[in-house]
Amino acid sequence: MTHQELENEIKTLEGQLTGDMFQDMDIRDKIHNLKMTRDGVKPADQVIECVGCGS
Asked: Which residues of 20-42 are buried (b: 16+ CB within 10 A; e: fewer)?
């Protein structure tokens, strides 16, 4: 995905948030993963993304 496609997907998902923590959990996880992909971030000393933070 391009940077713009990632941004568009993040904005779409953010528009689906309800404010209910349990209902939004999957959406927030997807947003988190997209932002990590966009920013090229992964936990330090981890080969697999998100093992360190538990997401």
From this structure: eeeeeeebeeebeebebbbeeeb
Report the interhelical angle of 3-14 vs 21-39 (nearest 10°).
170
- pTM given for the model: 0.73
Residue 5: how many CB atoms within 10 A of its CB?
Answer: 11
Query: pLDDT digit string (tens) for 10-42?
Result: 999 999 999 999 999 999 999 998 998 898 886
Mark residue 40 as left, alpha or beta (left: phi above 0; alpha: psi -120 to 50; beta: remaining): left
For residues 47 and 33, what is the distance between their CA atoms, to the nearest angstrom? 15
